[in-house]
Amino acid sequence: MNAIEVTGVTKKYSEITALDRLSLAIESGSTFGLLGTNGAGKSTLFKLLVGHIRPDDGTVSVAGTDVATAGPELRSIVGYLPEHAGFPPSLTGREVLEFHARMHSLPDAASRIDAVLSVVGLSDAADRCVGGYSNGMTRRLGLAAALLSRPRILLLDEPTAGLDPRGVADFHRVIERLDAQSDLTVVISSHVLTEIESLCERIAILHGGQLCTVGDIDGLRREVTDDVRVRLRLGDAASADSIQTIVSAFDASVHSTDHDGDVVFVDCDPEDVPQLLTELTEAVTIDGYDVREPGLERVFEQVLSEAEQDSQPRQNAESSEQLRTVSHDE
């Protein structure tokens, strides 16, 4: 069963098309990643799913409910953590949640508040003023508010933006615990590809308001390449220049180096790794290495590159049509 079904949805803001005939289905109980550059349509899709806006064309359904005709019950179906969720600094965490519970007319508010505070790890800080919370604690309070109604679908928009590594790790642990609830569907929109890679099994990539691809991460990796990425930590930054000749003999490629020049990434066939490392260690000083499967970054880069190439002919055709129209009018 699908928790979310978006069918042929178009949404425009004046002359800007935010979503263009988008169709997407997300299975119940999954943790799903939504990727795309700025302006791809991710935030617009979230606003449609929570009923803040309506599509110009097409249908949006959450947990079998048509968003266009849904009433207040939509609040209990979909929980939403926006990218910028702020709270009055003079209120305590518990008071913030009490306000949200009253706003949604939730029964058993006290027990629900205690439960979500425990889930997000804020029980000990519940009676402290929000103004003294760290960024990570504030984000977890926002998550607690989104969970109060016991939603079937949880939307997280850039949930760890601005958090330090510890805050990110704390937030991820909460999401992983939520993921154990088989009946909860979590959709995460994030620019942090490693975050999506660690938390999600399936993803969709949007570009220009259209769906570029959707599928499980491992399958999309295999579609992009069978190569592995070898990360080399060099003892001498100057050695990076000597690697290219060796690598080219294996039909491999040097992908990039870090800013200091002492780490090099080489993409190559898995079967070539032992011999490649043997020849490299004989020619240059290598302090260490590791071999990685192709990351989500590779998938994202290739999908967007193909999408941009596909959109160029359409843009050229539209420009030509506009020119013909202008010439005819003149």
UniProtKB/TrEMBL annotation:
Does the keyword Nucleotide-binding belong to this entry?
Answer: yes
PROSITE patterns for this protein: ABC_TRANSPORTER_2 (PS50893)
Question: Which Gene3D superfamilies does its entry note?
Answer: P-loop containing nucleotide triphosphate hydrolases
| Keyword flag Cytoplasm | no
Sorted keywords for this record are: ATP-binding, Nucleotide-binding, Transport
| Entry GO MF terms | ATP binding; ATP hydrolysis activity
Q: Which SMART domains match?
A: AAA (SM00382)
Ranges where the ABC transporter domain occurs = 4-233
- Name the residue ranges with Polar residues bias: 310-330
Q: Where is this region: Disordered?
A: 304-330
Q: Which domain of life is it from?
A: Archaea
Please state which protein family the record places this protein in: Belongs to the ABC transporter superfamily.
User: What is this protein identified as?
Assistant: ABC transporter ATP-binding protein
What species does this protein belong to? Haloferax denitrificans ATCC 35960
